[in-house]
Fold this protein.
Amino acid sequence: MAHAAAQALRAVLRDIEVGELAEVPLRSLAELHAAVAVMNAASAACDYGILGQVVPGLIGELYTVAEVNDSAEARRLLVDVLHAAFYLSKDLGHGDLAWMVSGHLHAVTNALGEPVLGAVAGFVRSHATVGVGARERGLTLAERSAELLEPDDGPAGQVYGMLHLALRGGRTGRQFPRAPHRSRRDRWSDRRWHLCRAELRAS
């Protein structure tokens, strides 16, 4: 089921790009919040079966709600869903699809104009790069994203910390200040990353 979802995900991203999304009944934002909460729980549990079932439809529905109503709230939910779509694609070996997802995530965060979410999108894109020179391009994206942030003790510091470690691991030679009060283990643990996403949703 999860691998079959790759084709559905490709289709909905294609239809967004060509402006031909299928018309479906749209749920209220309250209903969509509940659906995304279920998806986030599946993402935290690495339940690719559930993710494969719900992610493609949620992307199309939230994109439509965001565009029709110019809804920042729908776009923030779409950020969560695209983030899950990225890991679903990448973890199942669809690297080209993960890169495609990361481009849509970048576009949505640009529309929101929120630096922390923009840096999250940059972090995702830095891990999605494909083709010749992918590593170097990934480090460039991570560096650009780190420059968007002022590190603090909240979500900005957590995202900055992950970008900082990616750059240190890549030995770019560029010196960035450390994010305060964050250990290497904390920054990279799955639990910490999901807590970071929860803080971003609540902020």
Summary: DSSP finds ten helices and no strands in the chain. The mean pLDDT is 80. Residues 1-112 form one domain.
